[in-house]
Design goal:
Helices cover 46% and strands 19% of the residues. The chain has a six-stranded mixed sheet with strand order 1-2-4-3-5-6. The longest helix is centred in the C-terminal third of the chain and has 17 residues.
């Protein structure tokens, strides 16, 4: 298990492929972890790319602070992780919350970017998006984290995938619930308001 230390927090990461190959970084959405990118990782390493997967602070196998997380630490930590791994430039892919991290990384560290692919994300919080986020936050706190994970299933997966994997959906929801922490995810959401 590879761990990178950032501000006394353990950040879990996986680096696949051969050194000195063009690297693609995948950044998790709010309720994800590195395992969700496994099919992409296998596809791109077979194509000759190096692939970096990591769990953001607050999710998966990384430390899960319950309070006082700063969103700006996400792009800064990625920059430091790349330096630690002696990787100069990368393609960055991020979905949802990870897409916001990817956009901020590209703005703050353009010298480390080869290309950028933000998916299902946003670049600023207008009033409508702020209201949606507040409702998601309140639903998660009132009903529970499992509610938020179930709510995101139809956003994160196509209708065809859901139809073909009906038996896997409850397991995916339960797994996400088991490796994430309500207070850490709450903290990640709150970090966007800073």
């Amino acid at each position: 298990m590879a761990i990178f230390s950032y501000q006394e927090n353990a950040i879990y990461y996986e680096l696949h492929g051969k050194a000195n190959q063009t690297c693609i970084v995948f950044i998790n959405g709010l309720t994800q972890r590195t395992q969700h990118w496994k099919a992409y990782q296998e596809f791109f390493t077979k194509k000759g790319y190096q692939v970096l997967l990591f769990d953001l602070m607050g999710q998966g196998q990384s430390n899960k602070p319950a309070l006082f997380m700063n969103f700006e630490d996400n792009p800064r930590m990625l920059s430091k992780l790349l330096s630690h791994l002696n990787i100069e430039k990368v393609f960055v892919v991020g979905i949802s919350f990870g897409g916001v991290v990817a956009l901020q990384f590209a703005i703050k560290y353009p010298q480390q970017i080869l290309g950028l692919m933000p998916m299902s994300t946003f670049s600023e919080m207008d009033e409508q998006l702020q209201a949606i986020g507040q409702n998601l936050y309140e639903g998660m706190v009132s009903v529970g984290f499992e509610y938020l994970v179930k709510l995101f299933v139809p956003y994160n997966f196509s209708s065809t995938w859901i139809q073909n994997n009906k038996e896997r959906v409850p397991l995916s929801v339960r797994e996400s619930f088991s490796y994430n922490d309500l207070y850490a995810i709450q903290n990640m959401m709150e970090s966007l308001d800073q």
